[in-house]
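Before relying on records like the one below, remember that each one covers exactly one chain. Contacts with other chains, cofactors or solvent are not represented anywhere in the record.
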Amino acid sequence: MDKQKFLQVFSEVLAPDTDRVKSATATLKADYYPLPESLTVLLQLLLSDEPSPQRQLAASQARSLVPKHWRSYSSQVRAQLRQRLLQGTLQEDEQIVRHAASRVITAIAKIDLEDNEWPDVFDQLLGAAKSNEPRQREVGTYLLFTGLETISEAMQHRNKELLATFKRTIHDSQSAEVRINTMLAISRLAIALDSEEDPASLKLVQDLVPDMVAVLEQAIGAGDEDRTTQCFEVFQTLLGCDSSVLNKHFADLTQFMVKVASEKSLGEDMRTQAISFLMQCMRYRKMKMQSLKVGQQITLMCLEIATELGDAMSEDDEDVTTARSALGLLDEMASSLPPNQVVVPLLDALGPYVNSPDPDRRQGGIMALGMVVEGAPDFIATQLHEIFPLIFRLLEDSEMKVRRAALDGVMRVSEELAEEVGKEHKKLIPILVKHLDSAMRGLKGLDDKVHLDIIKASCNSIESVVDGLEASEVKPYLSEFMTRFTKLFSIPDLKTRGAAVSAAGSLGSVAEEGFLPYFEPTMHALQDFVELKDSSDELDLRSQTIDAMGSMAMAVGPKAFQKYVRPLMQATDEGLHLDHPKLKETSYLFWAMMAKVYKDDFKPFIEGVVKALFESLETEEADLEVDLGEENADLAGKEITIGGKKIKVAALAADTIVDSDDIEDLDVDELADASDDDDEWDDDLEVISAVAQEKEIAAEVLGEILTHATKDYLPYMEKTIEAVLPLVEHEYEGLQKAALSTLFRAYAAVWELQPDEISKWKPGLPLQQQPGAQVKKLGELIMTATLAMWENETDRALITDINRNIAATLKASGPSLIADPTTLKPVTETLVQILTKDHPCQKDFGDESDAAELLSLDETSEYDWLTIDTAMDAICGLAAALGPSFSELWKIFAKPVLKYASGSSAFERATAVGVVSEVIRSMGGEGITPHTSTLLPLLMKRLTDEDPETKSNAAYAVGLLQQHSQDDATILKQFPSILTKLEPLLQTANKARMKDNAAGCVCRMIMRHPAKVPVPQVVTALIEEVLPLREDFDENEPVWDCLVGLYQQEEPTLISLTPQLLPILAEVLAPEPKDQLKEETRGKLVQLVGFLAGKDRKEVGKYEVLREVLS
């Protein structure tokens, strides 16, 4: 090989000319890199006096060639090269070259150790780290870091020596670089550390944590942003290690981070990194954070930092600031910690902020409030009586930025509590319209970002509020809304136009048929938007328009929308090929909406739609080949998964002459600092994630279509299962959820197509009627995939979704899914794990000892509780599917469920008592009788619970228990007490359905043991104070069954109250509200009206509804 020519070509890579760089790169790949001599020359160049950029690039390329050529050298040459390289690196002045050379040394050491060569490598590295020369210590500590990063297993036997060295170098007084390198090395050692196998090393690492904090503090004090960032990254790494590494000093570390985040004199980057660390603590050490009770302190810190937001409120401003980071931390905390550690202290502290004369404090206060709603909506709902006045006042604030923040607050509260906010529409909507009008009048052009932002925020808030209204409630606003939105459809700013389009779509979906007068003009105004494609903003608007049109289709129905279907189906098909992920996903979702609207009439489009969705699911995800370096040679040629995408690792050839195609591209960007590599990978992962997210939507849409157009979808069902089933094992949790949901929906769809004698299942095992062979096989496939994930998955949202799917399918399809004994056992065990908070998804990352700690905590975050809540729903599904035979399983579930029923949290008690009632109803007399003496005392206590929901559920449960149980002795002893406790429930306001459920309970008591109930008094109370039922229409069945039975028995008090009962009957039999009565109950009441008309037709005829019933 011509060395001089090689160096001449290599130098061209650094030329400021793209064509020259490309030409040089191609020549190097084809003519030189396949030859072993190229590595020798690169190592010589690395050790030369050439400029540092050229030497760094030489090191980078040499590192990639070491696995390919190192073994081709003789042992003598290898020994000479390694020693020259080590000595040269120890004397190197340029840090960037030292680091690049160190990685070459590590790459060589990895191969040599595999070949039983360079036995004293560790002694040499430790010797350099202990040297009296600062430069050598800098190289030595960095080499130990790269060694632990690459060949940690080979170094584990030297942990004691390593940590003793680190104890010394972490205090290096002459070199900050040594201290930072030491931290980096400790973090890599901690990653590989087995705390159970090596407790001595664990203790040494734990003892180094305060020293590491001191290094971070020194870097902060020196204003060294680069080294500060490295230190923060080390602590982020340690969060991913065995939790015992940090636990000893976790509280102090948390306090240090709070101190840094709170210090306004520090730079933005330093504070945001401290906040980022706290956020990761909330995600991966949330139980530890809860046990430390630091929620209130950090909440108040975030509230104060939020006042620094200034004028940077626009949703288009994506800059990371301390204030934005603090608001993000509040959001994370509200989801991770119970309300008493976040929401309660925030609300308690909010007054001085929202009442402050300083607009920044008012803005910060309302923004902070908005951020905690998503994480604790149930608790926020109980505080709306205090929150609404505050929001209304700030919406009228004198400062525009405060009003803008209040609009954001309205949107966030409405998104989570649509119905509750909707109740305030008469007061709220006029204010929102006023803001919209003011901003539209004040708009001075495209550069007027302030007014444009207010217009978008107003549209978004209106959209969120409207979603919580009934069609009749939104009807009065249609004209004024559509007049304004139509004007905004032509505004030049496309993002503002999109906000108006989305709001119009939501308005239409809520208004339903009331939107028909506005439908055609709106479609005409929007029709050109579905053809936009010349910019990213245009494609965004196209996506929003298609979504809005789909919502309008749902509102106006198939007939009115018919002429738009085919053009829009063509437009959405075109949208798949415009390289815009959001538009592609919107196209898929539009198809789902069309399937909902047209059902069987969607048949002409199914073939094309399914073909496109299958193509998405079958997209090859192993199309990115990367070289992860010699340290990962064991992965060569294999596929790994990163960010939900399978990536093929480039093969490392062992031949002396390497084919040029196997040599990685020479990239000038490799001259950048090593940290830039992470940014490049982040970009890759964003692409990877986008692919997985597209598949997630495609899988969901397949589920929608097969549900709503089942008969015409059947030819594609088998292929759907084949395409979706493997996705259950995908690394991306969102895609896993979508895949499982679609599989369960497929099962439910084909179940309904079976003959009635099978689909109308009967509870209990063994099955009284076997499902078809294909349905049975599908169930087995689904449960095998589900159990494999359900038992070990750590993602709470995924487990919660599995719980929901199990519950819904068992209630709809009965016991066939769990008919196999090998299935029922793990289902039961997993549900018990969740109820006892011992499931992997309920533990902190890397900590196997959390169950006791979690159980000792007083409260649970609403997000955590949702996992338990849905598990309880799955238990109800089991009870429904098994019927009386569930009695044996109830012995397993009873203890954890009843523990919640007696807990300190109101929503836990209410949920658990609700589960008890469902279990009673499902098991019936045969199953529930043995448990009567255990359940009744608890339910009696809950009848006087302070929480209305719990009290209401208890009334329902007591009624069912005395109706079904055959243990009359136990129940009748409590009859007087039951009646006493029900009486105030019948007389109070119908909060949480208390009056309705109490009425149902007492009517069940009359039907079961009429002689034990004072019927005249109860009937009088029902007719004069309770009926008609207003909330829980299910209880109309026992109430009217009871009254009809009493009429049949000619109960005198009831007969005398007939004139008062007739207007109640007229209201109950009226067309609205819908679903007041089941058909069977309605039939009984129609007969009752006929009976009463036979007694006094004139009296009955006073009521129009009753006259129509008789006609």
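The longest strand covers residues 645-649.
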